[in-house]
Amino acid sequence: MGHTLKVGMGDMAVLSGDGMLSCHGLGSCVALAVYDPMAKVAGLAHVMLPTSKSATRAHGIELEPGRYADTALKPLLERMAHLGAKKQACRAKLVGAATMFRFAGKDPQSSIGDRNLQAVLESLGSAGIPVLGQVTGGSVGRSMELYASDGRILVTTALHGAVVL
Amino acid sequence: MRDLMHLQEIELDALRELGNIGAGNAATALSKMLGEPITISVPEVKVVPMEAVPELLGGPDRVMAGIYMKVFGDAPCKLLCFFSEESVQSLLDLLLPAAGVRPEGLDENAQSALKELGNILGCAYLNAAAKLLNLSMIPSVPALAVDMVGVIMSEAVLDMAENSRHVIFIEARFEGRSDPVDGSILLVPEAEGAEALIARLHVLTGG
User: Fold this and answer.
1) DSSP state of B103
2) How far is it, in rounded angstroms, from Cα A46 to Cα B73?
3) pLDDT at B76 over 70
4) Which residues have a Cβ under 8 Å from the Cβ of B101 and sit 6 or more positions away?
5) Of B55, B143, B159, the CB nearest to A112
6) What is the pLDDT, as a whole number, of residue B110?
7) How far apart are CA B30 and CA B174, in angstroms?
8) What does the alpha-carbon distance between residue B161 and residue A68 come to, in Å, rounded to a whole number?
9) Which residue from A151, A108, A112 is spatially nearest to A27, judged by alpha carbons?
10) A151: left (phi over 0), alpha (psi -120 to 50) or beta
11) Cβ–Cβ of A9/B162 closer than 8 Å?
12) Alpha carbons A38 and A49: distance in angstroms, whole number
């Protein structure tokens, strides 16, 4: 068994060979998993928020690309390329983007989970990376493990069982 | 605005005392409702990086029922009540003596009862705090999630990540004497809310 790396909120990691990358406790966050099956290189970003174009920079917080759906993909692909991945061969899978709390009455703004998913899908679309599958939405917290040997993902929940993606 | 990391020990102490008063009032409300003594712990005040939030309170592996309220007004905050799975069972036995309620399959009545319980505890907490500080603190309707406690926590504070690297929270644990009722009540001030609370506490202590 190779490396096992836990990817915390706002962080990202890449791996090749037979290791495993994981995100624990995903609510409205999105685990953006990218895999090159030819090179057997895996990349995982734990995206927190839909866009970096917010008050963040105005508040003087240093931009961390892994936090945002619209900035995570580029550095993730760059780091995967260092391990030999080719962008053309990369495939994506997505986990998370739930809406944990539903308040009574209408919420005028769509949830962070929905907006995170939308923004990640847009960035994958413009990079031309196909999405092979997703376990997203609902109001369920999830954890996931991405295996670098074959790109399989195991999605687990506290009360709603597990699924292989 | 200061980063929450730069709060001083004396300011954290003042927030701890505020938590003591709020949680004390909430425990009294719970105790009256259940007809049983409830003890509360001395509150803990912690400032942690946003990224560490999913690991708090038992992290991604512990399942609890979380009732969440946004707090509007002079000091914007989030307020959360957590109940362990076992106490959800015993609370529902008390509140809705219909048999066979399981935490993973709460029907609408059970969900509504838990939300109302959280609402009562939360409002008791906020009333005590608002009265002490002479601030307006207005809660939203409660929302409920039964899931990994780390997920519930991070979900409640995620929108604060846009403006702050750190999260401050005041946690008091409560426990029933005979019934297995245990959980936590947490006040999570937004950066602006923390400053407002501290400024008022400062005036009160004559500092």
Assistant:
1) G
2) 33
3) yes
4) B89, B92, B93, B107, B110
5) B159
6) 87
7) 10
8) 11
9) A112
10) left
11) no
12) 31
Could A28 and B53 be called an inter-chain contact, meaning their C-beta atoms sit closer than 8 Å?
no
**Secondary structure (3-state) at B101:** coil
Q: Can A23 be counted among the known catalytic residues? A: no
3-state class of B173 per DSSP? strand
Nearest chain A residue to B70 by CA: give it. Answer: A103
Q: Cα dist. A56→A52, B68, B196 in Å?
A: 7, 25, 21
Q: pLDDT averaged over consecutive 10-residue blocks of chain A (165 residues)?
A: 85 93 94 96 94 62 78 95 95 95 68 93 96 94 95 93 92
State residue A144's pLDDT score.
96
Prediction pTM value: 0.88
Q: Is B200 left (phi over 0), alpha (psi -120 to 50) or beta?
A: alpha
The candidate with the shortest Cα–Cα distance to B38, out of B142, B121, B116, is: B121
For B110-151, give the DSSP string. HHHHHHHHHHHHHHHHHHHHHHHHT--EEE---EEEEEEHHH
Q: What is the distance in angstroms between the CA of the first residue and the CA of the last residue of chain B? A: 20
Complex ipTM > 0.90:
no
